[in-house]
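Before a colleague's protein record goes any further, I have to sign it off. What it holds is a sequence and that sequence's fold in token form. My question to you is simply how this chain folds and whether the tokens agree. Thanks in advance; the entry in question is below:
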Amino acid sequence: MKSLARWSVNNSVSVNLIMIFIIMAGLFTVLGMRREMFPQFALDMINVSVTYPGASPQEVEEGICIKIEEQIKGVEGISKIRSGSYEGLGSVTVELDSNADLQTVLDDMKTQIDLIDTFPDEAEDPVIVEIINKDPTITVGVYGNVSEKLLRRTAEKSGTT
């Protein structure tokens, strides 16, 4: 430790150059950083939902959910399958393995679900989507002794600059 302090005192120009380099590298990194108010990130989950108007949860489970579960259970990359049967709606949520390629599994699932031809006639086409989280990273509270309209306009104007 003493030798580092001694070297720093004897080589002040080098120490200042290193300090400037570190500051410049930090500024370069901060300015190049991607910033988003509402970042999107995948949760490695896929949801399949099928609307079945007028059907009870029991009918949805038998006519929709069980058929989807049985059809996709052989798809590589799936770690967990959960389903929910509601009045007029069946939903199957699939969690993927940590090393699975989301797009490959999504395509394989679409292919397998398209092979199901025994859905009830009243059931609509399955909707297969990747679950994406889109939560805000910043929440701002604005207050003051002015109208709500002016507060809103001021907050929106400040957010765009």
Remarks:
- The longest helix spans residues 12-32.
- Strands lie at 41-51, 78-86, 89-96, 127-133.
- The two ends are 47 Å apart (CA to CA).
- Residues 2-32 form one domain.
